[in-house]
Write a structure and sequence with these properties.
The chain is an alpha/beta fold and about 280 residues long. The chain is about 40% helix and about 20% strand. Helix 6 (about 200-210) packs across helix 7 (about 225-235).
Amino acid sequence: MGNPAHPLPTPSTQAGREGLAALLARPARAVVALDFDGTLADIVPDPEQSRAHPGVVPALSALAPQVAAVAVITGRPADTAVRYGGFAGAAGLDHLVVLGHYGAERWDAVSAAVHASDPDPGVEAVRAELPAVLEEAGADSGTWIEEKGRAVAVHTRRAADPQAAFEALRAPLGSLAARHGLIVEPGRLVLELRPPGMDKGVALEEYVKEVGAETVLYAGDDLGDLAAYAAVEKLRTRGTAGLLVCSGTEVPELAERADLLLSGPAAVADLLGTLARQLADAGR
């Protein structure tokens, strides 16, 4: 039995309750998939200062050996997520993979190596033109560019009026991306320009198929996670059990589709740790 002092939260939907029950009943056939920023790490003004919540690695170290795999799916470069997450060399994480740049890069804990496809030339072209586009759009000094290797992002969180700056940049950045065959992925006061054809849904669905999982838990917090939610919903129609977890309430489009709504990364870490304890107790 699980520890009564740390009960698992109850999903609000029947599909979510079935997904949680399937994970608890057959953990060796389950994939736990997680976004990074906003889900495992708190959102901070400077993304370079982002770090996994202190409870995340201990929880994953306890959980990962009991499930088929844990996958961190992020728009960040894989090696960046590994460093900011503190995953390299952590005990118990042999079953962990990081799918960076929406699956274009892959790091696994066993080899500690990153495998990647060739970069899209459109990203380099956008990178060269972006400063001039921002200047022409009247972006203030609080708007800044984040280099992401296979993508580039524009943040407005530090602007004088963050939401107004975000909205004002949608059209010019959309035009810039389209000229070079890229798409714009909106997020929480960030607009990411990246190649099409790869998103968290594609990455998740391919990985679940690779592992042969019967159950998938996916946790995210932002618009970019909607594709992963859609993938889980599609997998459910094919007989795969699924549990959709939302970290925070800042993105209503995600929260409204979630089976389980949590307050943020600290609560996600608690959920992962509680799952690990209940599975360990059940196996005794």
